[in-house]
Amino acid sequence: MLSQTTEYALRAMACLALQPESLVPTNIVAERTRVPGNYLAKVLQQLAGAGLIAGRRGVGGGYRLSKPAERITLLEIINAVGTLQRIETCPLGISTHGPMLCPLHRALDDAAAALIAKFDGVTLQSLIDDPRTPSKPLCETVPATLTVGGKTRG
Fold first, then answer.
1. Run of H or E including 99
2. What is the C-alpha separation between 3 and 43, in angstroms, rounded?
């Protein structure tokens, strides 16, 4: 349903949301999210380009959210690395359909509309604070503190 890149972006953002005050190095994000490092670096660049995260290079560098988790929706993340699109006209270009979609494309458009509405209503913070489960996103892979270069952060 969602691309692998989108899944990786959502995992990375959840990881960063769990440590909002820390710069989290790319290798730590890769380890916690189980995303290949080289691929993750490209995803993080896309997220940074969309203004969702900010990064710093070098020793002590890494990434962090560029705004609070309660102000970042899953739809923003999805749109940073891809898109969910509504079907506005017949994808086949059938002129007799005019502005109306056939039953197949109407069903696909209805599903896209529902996904867009759902993802736009879910913030990163709501994932962390979800009262329906005691676990957090990425559960056991996220320690309470972050150790980088022998220094503890968190």
1. none
2. 12
Alpha helix segments (H runs only) across the chain:
4-17, 26-33, 37-49, 74-81, 103-120, 124-128
Parts of the chain with a pLDDT under 70: 133-154
- CB-CB neighbours of 31 under 10 Å: 14
Tokens, residue 138: 């990425």
CB crowding 85-97: b at 16 or more within 10 Å, else e? eebeebeeeeeee
Question: Per residue in 127-144, pLDDT tens?
Answer: 888 777 666 666 554 444
The distance from CA 18 to its chain's CA centroid, rounded to whole angstroms, is: 13
Distance between first and last Cα of the chain: 34
| pLDDT at residue 4, rounded to an integer | 94
- In 3D, which of 39, 122, 44 has the Cα closest to residue 76? 122
**Most distant CA atoms of the chain, gap in Å:** 68
User: What pLDDT score does 136 carry?
Assistant: 67
- Which pair of structure tokens corresponds to residue 26? 């790319």
Q: Which residues contact 97 (CB under 8 A, 6 or more apart)?
A: 89, 90
